[in-house]
Amino acid sequence: MNKQKEKAEALERITANRHRTNLFKRHEQQLIVFFVRRIPRFITSDMLTLIGLAGSLITAGSFVLGRSVGRGWLLLGIVGLFINWFGDSLDGRLAYYRQTPRKWYGFSLDFIVDWFANILIGAAYIYYAPDPKEFIGFMFVCLYGWAMMMALLRYKIVDTYTIDSGIFGPTEVRILIMLILVLEVLIPDSLIYSSGIICFTLLVVDIKDFRQLLHTADARDKAEHVSCGNN
To answer: What's the predicted TM-score (pTM) here?
Structure first.
């Protein structure tokens, strides 16, 4: 009974200040609870951020090795993406679990590191993929960056931080990239088609979110205008 209560309290802490709607939300949160309750005290949130960045470096390295050594090295990217998920998903949640959050510091650090990791993996993809497939890597960086900027703007407008677009979030993106890497190893040159589908999906999602963001911003403007008029 005590264990169930501890798990419930841990879940409540790690979900503080974050609204999630992604497809694997329930399973992901349970996994995060499992890890944060077992992470040694000497490991800090900043260390986990560095671990997440190391995962991105490994993923980028898999593309470099995939071209210079052999396509099978792309599978190393799966390990890198899991390490990236571990560090990126647990750094802020560990602070909330330990009740030592640094809201604005953590938000700023996480945002910049995520953007750097995005560029790093995109650049490695461009190195791996010969022309014209390298253009898709550039588009992925741009479209995912667009999604990150809208998450930041949404936070400013509604004061609720969410990194998901409906059922699609960073975790789902990582899983899709993992599947793309496996498919490329099994079916050479399939990368251009699978990556193209991902980019098209991101474009549709970004446009949808942008329209919703403008609608939300307009509604807030109208509400503030009415409030100012009443005063």
So the answer is: 0.87
- Contact assessment for residue 79 and residue 65, using Cβ atoms and an 8 Å cutoff: no
Full 3-state SS string of the chain? CHHHHHHHHHHHHHCCCCCCCCCCHHHHHHHHHHHHCCCCCCCCHHHHHHHHHHHHHHHHHHHHHHHHCCHHHHHHHHHHHHHHHHHHHHHHHHHHHCCCCCHHHHHHHHHHHHHHHHHHHHHHHHHHCCCCCHHHHHHHHHHHHHHHHHHHHHHHHHCCCCCCECCECHHHHHHHHHHHHHHHHHCCCCHHHHHHHHHHHHHHHHHHHHHHHHHHHHHHHHHHHHHHHHC
What CATH number does domain 2-230 carry, 1.10.3720.10, 2.40.30.10, 3.40.50.300, 1.20.120.1760?
1.20.120.1760
Taking the domains of the chain in order of start, what are their residue ranges? Answer: 2-230
Q: What are 154-179's pLDDT values in tens digits?
A: 888 887 777 777 777 888 889 989 99
